[in-house]
Amino acid sequence: MNSPTLPEPISSIECLAARSPVCNAHHVAKDLLTRIELRFIDAAGQARTLALGPGEFSSVRDGLALSSRLEHALGGTIVRATISNRGTDAVRLTAALFEISTGFAPTAPARFFKHGYQSWSASGGEDVGTSRTHRRDTAGFITRVNHQSETIRPPEFPESQTSELFTIVESGNAPERVLAGFIGAATSLSTLTVSSPEKIVARAILDDVTLAPGAHREIDPLFIAVADESAARLAARWADAAGRWMNARVSAPFQRGWCSWYHYFHAITEDALRANIKSLEAMRSEFPLDVVQLDDGFQSALGDWDTTNAKFPSGLKKIAAEIRAAGFKAGIWTAPFLAARDSRLMIDHPDWFITRTDTGDHEPVRAGHNPNWTASDDKFAYALDPSNPAFAAHLRHLFAKLTHDFGYSYLKLDFLYAAAVPGRRHDPNLTRGETLRRGLDAIRAGAGDDAFILGCGCPIGQAVGVVDGMRIGPDVSPFWGSTASGAGDPSTVYALDAIIARSFMHRRLWLNDPDCLMLRARKTRLTADERAALAATIIASGGMLLISDDMSLLDAEAGKLFGVVAQIAQEIDSNAEREPVLALDLMSTGDVRGLISQNAEGKGTIAMLLNRGDTPARVQTSDLKLGAGEIAALDLAFDEKIEIFDTIDLPPHSARILRVSIK
Ligand code: 9PG
Q1: 429-467, pLDDT tens digit by residue?
Q2: Which of 219, 250, 321, 437 has the smallest CB count inside 10 Å?
Q3: Mean pLDDT for the stretch of residues 185-210
Q4: Which of 301, 209, 283 is nearest to 552 (CA)?
Q5: DSSP string spanning 428-443?
Q6: Are 12 and 26 spatial neighbours (Cβ–Cβ below 8 Å)?
Q7: 370 C-alpha vs ligand 1 centroid, how far in Å?
Q8: Residue whose CA is closest, atom 1 of ligand 1?
Q9: Whole-angstrom Cα Rg for the chain
């Protein structure tokens, strides 16, 4: 693994108080990490463990060696563990566990941040230890394979107490919070379980991969920090460390575009696309966009991404040429790790799939279900296996063709979790995390360094350093959704929750894609307030700005609104290069949520306040701690500036942009 941007490790144990808000990194290293445990299966098929206690840095037993190294950097401690097989028999590795002592009282009420598995999975604050069950425990396989790094959690790591990739723990009124998170993800999926306030168990999931005699394996590094700062700021600190470790691609320009999905869905046709290209060309001064991205609905079959169905008679090359001739970058959607029964790919290459271990006959693993995707009776979509070099070579050729031959330079890669499903892989030496990474690397190798790659439906860690943009929430939709029904169905309110919860990732791990703006007032169930709340949350995140409307439905008023939002979005994006966009309260689950963006030169603050609830809300401005200055609020729904005094009133499903101007 290369990590050239990481600061030099400090070898002597010293207090970093002078260099970071962490008061004593020595304390973190020595006292917080209490145990490292390797779980493995020996040559006789026995489940075994090998552990390092406090202050122990290596241990060897029966030819298997476990060692660890601590480095103090970025205001915390980085723990690196290595496993080497010095014996004569192969072993299989199950997991590496890191026990972290938080210092919090076991009985005090505490909260932890439960971070979601992939783009669409929800993230947020939860109470520690109150529940051992989760709504997904009884859900079907497709739901669990979508939203959990393990479809069945080991009993000691229940879903309700488990966060993916990183977590933050806070207790009562204690000023310090504890952050623990993996900052590498190229070699495994990973989780952190908080069953009681005093302990975090971080776990690198090794999927029983083989470790041959003479071989060694480095566990992805774990970052631990304790600081008297907000949960959002700690999360940004994790993202900063992970981005540096994995060479995140964070320098793509601000992205503005159009996407076919949230108006046309599967019914998109070549004619509808062409009509929009014409409108976009004519409306360029009101809607200055760079990318036109065709979404799902063009392909001849799920898996056959270079051929079109009858709705797209001209074929993909001609369509890209038309988009480019109109002055836009051409973008295209694919689900590169999925295929349906009626695809040429699945018919010709039944051996390219991840297969089930619970059935004897090499059945491919089901990773999705969608009646719109296939004419076969079997409506499942199956998971492809990038650990198979033949399929990886196919990916390289396919994306080289789409990019260099057809002319698509913006690639939306969807349903990427499919490469990480459990099952039998071609290469038993690769974990599920490594298999996903290998697939992404093959796509990047084919598409080249200049293509803008957008991940979607993607486990969060494995794509860092490969993708330029990442969807960080579930789909928006032309209706608000019920705040009572629980997350699951696509609806705009859950997308807003995720945009706020994962805002800190923007320009740390990639460019955040908050999903699309919808401005149309007809053919939608979103009210004016709801459309404005969607726009306000998207722009306050600083992330990508894509419109998904039939452009013929947008009038001059929508154009004026777009002008306002595009300017604010770009301003917040440029702030984010220096200062991360932070949730007002990352751990909160209340109806009023918000984002805050600070100008690095100290030229004021822009905040966004959202009332996601079904009843009106009133906010005390002093509670927002926006700093001294005059606050002006902007209601995008009415293009209205409101002078703010002590309180702000927010109707249900509405948002305000607040600008603090320093006099
Ligand atoms: C195209 C869409 C759009 C959208 C993506 C993704 O669980 N599901 O059945 C499910 C279906 C679609 C979906 C997410 C989940 O949306 O996020 O932007 O590209 O695919 O099919």
Answers
A1: 999 999 999 999 999 999 999 999 999 999 999 999 999
A2: 321
A3: 98
A4: 283
A5: TTS-HHHHHHHHHHHH
A6: no
A7: 10
A8: 296
A9: 25
